[in-house]
Write a structure and sequence with these properties.
single chain, alpha/beta, Aspartate Aminotransferase, domain 2, Aspartate Aminotransferase, domain 1, 2 domains, 12 strands, globular, binds pyridoxal-5'-phosphate
């Protein structure tokens, strides 16, 4: 398939996929094998050992590259394993500029693992991407952004960040987990590496933990593929198959996530007990213009506070929802509700948490694809 010429909705279903050569099976089989028989030493069909290559994984890697408008894809056992592989491009003494509002696990691996290997991370506000320039020195090697962020849904200008990185010869890494390629393709805006926790929207069914990277530069792909094989944090073929299956409906799911998200954001805004509602689609979102420029829709992630900003009030709401399940993670077909202050962001001291807007009553929704009337009814009875 000439992947490049098709539109995203077609690529999601066909990119990378070929009928199985032995049977013609339309869906890629799960090649559950650890090794491959050779006709003579070194005489093989491109597959030697399953840590290095697996046909189910190859198809998924090609599909992911195609849907992110990149040349190469690499799969990992989790989003964090993909993050780990990217950070292993660095050597002691290197410095990284990172957006200060980011996934807790990314912050943790940077500060608690890689900092011990002599790599320095600067966490900075990137509401204005030009802020990045002020923190560049001759040891800076990489800029790491996540947009929109979790749970405050801040938006970072990818094209402006890329321009700064090009000028200073820095690698721009963009975590595209929240938007998914349906809403945003950072490679088109100049990112060097796009990272995914495919556990979320790409997998989409809350049944797999998986990570991925895509890139265009051959030398960068070779380095990352070397790390993938040397360190071995690869996914099994069954997990690859689940993600491959998941991405076939990404466009249909995301369209509904966006519709439901919009309706719920507006409903919450009209609720007398609700304080602030954060959703990238609102015109008064602080970086709505950037969101409108670089995203094709606003998704189903919403955060909101209660007018009575107390932990107890928030907990009461969390306990009362019936459809919205209280759980970490996001991006699945089921609606989830979470409380960052006591769940995902509990390790951040209260003072700095509140200073950043992550107040006690902040509730995060991952709006699923159920009937929106039922979802609104559920929130109505829970908030009271
Ligand atoms: C979940 C998540 C990760 C980590 O991915 P895992 O698959 O859980 O290892 C990284 N970045 C973002 C934005 C995430 O939401």
């Amino acid at each position: 398939m000439a992947d490049k010429n098709y539109k995203l909705n077609t690529k999601l279903i066909h990119a990378g996929v070929h009928p199985d050569p032995t049977t013609g099976a339309i869906m890629t089989p799960i090649y559950q094998t650890s090794t491959y028989v050779q006709s003579g030493p070194g005489d093989h069909k491109g597959y030697e050992y399953a840590r290095t290559q697996n046909p189910t994984r190859t198809v998924l890697q090609d599909a992911l590259a195609a849907i992110e408008n990149a040349k190469y894809g690499l799969c990992f056992g989790s989003g964090m394993a993909a993050t780990d592989a990217v950070l292993k491009l660095l050597v002691p003494g290197d410095e990284v500029i990172v957006s200060n509002d980011l996934y807790g696990g990314t912050y943790r691996v940077m500060t608690k693992v890689f900092a011990h290997y002599g790599i320095k991370f600067h966490f900075i506000g990137m509401h204005d991407a030009h802020n990045i320039s002020r923190h560049i020195n001759n040891r800076t090697k990489m800029v790491w952004i996540e947009t929109p962020t979790n749970p405050l849904l801040n938006v970072i200008d990818i094209a402006a960040s890329a321009e700064i990185c090009k000028k200073h010869n820095l690698t721009l890494v963009c975590d595209n987990t929240f938007a998914s390629p349906y809403l945003q393709t950072p490679m088109d805006l100049g990112a060097d590496i796009v990272l995914h926790s495919a556990t979320k929207y790409l997998g989409g069914h809350s049944d797999v933990v998986h990570g991925a990277l895509v890139m265009n530069d051959k030398a960068l792909e070779e380095k990352l593929r070397f790390i993938q094989n040397s360190c071995g944090a690869v996914p099994g073929p069954h997990d690859c198959w689940l993600v491959l299956r998941g991405i076939k409906t990404l466009h249909v799911r995301m369209q509904r996530h966006c519709e439901n998200g919009e309706a719920i954001a507006h409903y919450l805004r009209s609720h007398p007990k609700v304080g602030k509602v954060i959703w990238t689609g609102f015109e008064d979102h602080p970086n709505h213009d950037v969101a409108k420029k670089q995203m094709r829709g606003f998704g189903g992630m919403i955060s909101f506070t209660l007018k009575n900003d107390s932990l107890d009030e928030a907990v009461a709401v969390l306990k009362k929802t019936k459809l919205f399940a209280l759980a970490e993670s996001l991006g699945g077909v089921e609606s989830l509700i979470g409380h960052p202050a006591t769940m995902t962001h509990a390790s951040i001291p209260r003072e700095s948490r509140v200073a950043n807007g992550l107040v006690d009553s902040l509730i995060r929704l991952s709006v699923g694809i159920e009937d929106v009337d039922d979802l609104i009814e559920d929130l109505k009875q829970a908030i009271g």
